[in-house]
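Hi X.,

You mentioned you wanted examples for the new student's onboarding notes, showing what a folding record looks like when two proteins sit in one file. Here is a clean example. The first protein comes first, with its sequence line followed by its structure tokens.
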Amino acid sequence: MSALESGPATLAGLVAATGLARPTAHRLAVALEHHRMVARDMQGRFILGPRLAELAAAAGEDRLLATAGPVLTHLRDITGESAQLYRRQGDMRICVAAAERLSGLRDTVPVGSTLTMKAGSSAQILMAWEEPERLHRGLQGARFTATALSGVRRRGWAQSIGEREPGVASVSAPVRGPSNRVVAAVSVSGPIERLTRHPGRMHAQAVIDSAARLSEALRRTG
């Protein structure tokens, strides 16, 4: 597998790189292929398989959740609003961690809640950096536009005012994995009466800072 780290290799290439006998190299490569640790490209050469990416994503999610608690609690404490962490799951987004405002009127999103990708600031974040084809599909029926997502990419945060739920405003920023890919969205949410119709002015920097802390934790252990 280390021999495949630099790119595709033929069986002869694997033999040369590992010093293994040809039958042994072939047997190991085929066994790893069976477990999806190794795959073949269009030319039949051996390459690293999809299972490695799946395991890396699972490990990354564990690291993200281990770090999220204190970061979301701090974000809640400095903004006075409920804080959440969302990940995309197919055509929906799921709340994987949260720190609720301790008292008074608040927006409550329980951990495990599945919400639409068609509305809300965290949906905007999780959509904004998608590949063009998936982005185009995701915008069909959405409460936000391609122009709005262009603005999100430019400034690095998103806001919504009554988009997901009447009377609720939110601000979100992207969490990036070691490859700089957006893997999650950090949000604060609460009533428009407190967050106003320009919630980004109040809380964008705090949300960006929290997202940066989570991104840094993923890079450190990535």
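Then the second protein repeats the pattern, sequence line and then tokens:
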Amino acid sequence: MILEVIATCAEDAVVAEANGADRLELVTAVTEGGLTPGIGLVRQVVKSVNVPVHVMVRPHSRSFLYSEADIQTMEEEARAIEDAGAAGIVFGALTADRRIDEAALARILAASGGMNVTFHRAFDELASLPEGLHTLLRYPRVNRVLTSGGPLPAPQAASEIRQLVELARGSSLVILAGYGLTLETVDRFIAETKVCEVHFGSDIRFGRKGLSPIDPDRLSALSSRLKAYY
């Protein structure tokens, strides 16, 4: 069981690693769903931890439909993130008819070098999640999909996530479940969905608030619980 934790600063990253995070998703503007952090922060975090750092590549929070200028920006960001030593990027792009923007995806994959690529929760806005997953399975460079199984919190879409896990079985694509997971409900959720990776943000922060620092005791308790699945 892999535990991915959202980090928004270098302190977050260090505390997350020290208390059991297996991987970090580094973002800024967490209240907007996460945007690309500054390259200085990326370099600092990569130097500060030993766990893999996956960096959000998202130029704005208006939508997941991107212009040519947006795509060029993301290409430049992906190259800079790889140069900074990050292990991966987190990216997603859609078309106006709520399908995966394969043209944008191909360009970002080409710009991402040897990094891991996660397709983020833009996935949850697709017209058909199974169809979207089949599209992503045609791109072996995409390692995982971050999803809550649709617009609702993940615990309310356990059956949808279980279906995605089954569809991805035998491939190199991993279903990373996130949004709405809690320390108290994660055991039941894992049993229902059979996911092998989970993504946590606000629930492991003081007051369970997205803008608060990480609560080391709560994160450590979560990590200890997940070790039972190793």
